[in-house]
Write a structure and sequence with these properties.
By secondary structure, the protein is an alpha/beta fold. Helix content is 32%, strand content 25%.
């Protein structure tokens, strides 16, 4: 099997009446979904040569699924982007990906303006499509490249990650394996499909013939909890912020939905939040803490739920088909407990960065993905992430890991979120700054400093503490620490 589309069509032939995607009052069966994909695929194939890029500006919906798999049916490379993006943000993707077509709702004036500016033809996903090819002899086309996902840009330098059908199949099969997904599973999805985590949630459940229920926005966390109960889904996936909202802002813990599993990725989750989430879910719900990157299609490691307490704080073990090693600055392997860069090898590692051979050559070397994350492996082969190499704070002669400080501060009950980063200092090069979300008060700020002084070396104690209503994040939930640092430096 070469593509996820082939697997979806197989499921559609075997169980055409089973629900595939539910979106509010709308639902579509596997048979109907396969027909819609085939129709759009034929339409797109008539308008674009195989191997062309096509930008998708479609929000989470049944239409998005049809658009994504329709591109694959036509042998095209899908380039999804956030339908709620500003015009300038869509323009950045389009100017780099150079799509032959844009699939969108023409009610999205921001996307329409970009299409007109670049003279790109548009397929309106909400309207009746052009006459479809009903000839039974028509067969889907194939192009090895399947998807370009633009990285979240936490460093301010987004890149287009090219994922092949082989990458997608490899990662999907591995995730299905350790989550033990079957056709009986269903998931309430609140993650953006246009990023790797949401994309993997979508593809893994369609792969096994399960059901994907498109959930409400996490702006309304109680509504999400209510939907979990209403649909009786077996699974839920989220980033740390998602989990904090469920535990702290809803009645999730007092009346836990009967989930089979909960998965967390999209950034490290503090030990405190991990334990609170574990306490909140009902037995026998299994909590999977995971780690990955867009460049790895989605997933690199998973922490077996039965070892959660024993290995608290760990990102877990490699998923099936992935090999990890820890390398020093000279590229040599480091031993047990030694911190270095996390390197990964497997069939899920990206093909390349789109139109960026220099970045590709610096990131994938001899097949090994250089993640840019720092970590170590313990005696049992469990990975512990210590932060990103680019986020290490260099203050005087010291190197400080933000993660250590964040874990400590997050243990305070009046803190909802914390981000620690380095800001420029004329004397020391950088000093530590902590940005807090929670119960703001001078007394609580003093408690933060007091805890840090009691628990950390002096050079690790935050020089600056700032309260924020919220922390800047990408659409996939990752912190934009460069923006926090820049905002602080403008005032110093």
């Amino acid at each position: 099997m070469r593509t996820l589309l082939e697997k979806l069509n197989q499921v559609a032939r075997q169980t055409p009446e089973r629900d595939a995607v539910v979106d509010g009052d709308l639902s579509i069966s596997y048979g109907e979904l396969a027909d819609e994909i085939r129709g759009l695929g034929a339409t797109l194939a008539a308008r674009c040569p195989a191997g062309s890029t096509v930008t998708l500006v479609v929000e989470n919906s049944i239409r998005y699924v049809v658009a994504l798999y329709g591109c694959w049916s036509a042998g095209l490379i899908a380039v999804p982007t956030d339908a709620h993006s500003r015009e300038r943000e869509i323009e950045q993707v389009v100017s780099h990906a150079r799509p032959a077509l844009m699939i969108m709702s023409t009610r999205k004036s921001n996307a329409v303006a970009v299409a007109e500016r670049f003279a790109i033809p548009v397929v309106d996903i909400e309207r009746v499509l052009e006459p479809r090819t009903d000839d039974a002899a028509w067969e889907p086309r194939y192009c090895d490249d399947a998807l370009i996902i633009y990285t979240s840009g936490t460093s301010g330098d987004p890149k287009g990650v090219v994922l092949t059908h082989s990458n997608l199949i490899a990662n999907t099969e591995s995730i299905v394996d350790y989550l033990e997904l079957t056709y009986e599973d269903s998931v309430l999805n609140v993650l953006p499909f246009h990023y790797s985590y949401g994309n993997s949630v979508l593809n893994t459940h369609l792969f096994v013939g399960g059901k994907v229920v498109i959930g409400p926005s996490m702006m309304y966390p109680q509504a999400v909890t209510d939907e979990l109960r209403h649909h009786g889904v077996t699974g839920f996936s989220g980033v740390p912020t998602t989990m904090a909202l469920l535990v702290d802002r809803t009645d999730f813990a007092s009346e836990p939905p009967p989930l089979r599993y909960v998965t967390q990725a999209g950034g490290g989750m503090s030990k405190d939040l991990t334990l609170r989430l574990k306490d909140a879910v009902a037995e026998p719900t299994r909590l999977f803490v995971m780690y990955g990157q867009t460049e790895a299609t989605a997933r690199l490691t998973w922490l077996p739920p039965e070892r959660l307490h024993e290995k608290l704080g760990s990102a877990g073990i490699p998923i099936p088909g992935v090999t990890l090693r820890i390398a020093g600055k000279d590229g040599r392997d480091l031993g047990e407990g030694q911190v270095g860069e996390v390197l990964a090898l497997g069939n899920n590692i990206m093909s390349r960065y789109w139109c960026n051979p220099e970045a590709t050559a610096a990131t994938v070397i001899d097949g090994w993905l250089h993640t840019g994350d720092l970590g170590y492996l313990d005696a049992d082969g469990f990975l512990f992430i210590q932060g990103r190499a680019s986020e290490m704070i260099k203050t005087g002669a010291h190197r400080v890991s933000p993660k250590e400080i964040e874990e400590l501060v997050a243990s305070l009950d009046f803190i909802d979120e914390v981000a620690v980063c380095g800001v420029q200092d004329k004397l020391l090069g950088q000093v530590v700054a902590a940005f807090l979300v929670g119960e703001e008060s001078p007394a609580n700020a003093r408690k933060v400093l007091s805890l840090c002084r009691q628990s950390l070396s002096l050079h690790k104690v935050p020089r600056y503490i700032e309260w924020r209503d919220r922390l800047p994040k990408t659409a996939s939930g990752k912190l934009k620490k460069h923006r926090l640092a820049a905002s602080r430096e403008l005032r110093t």
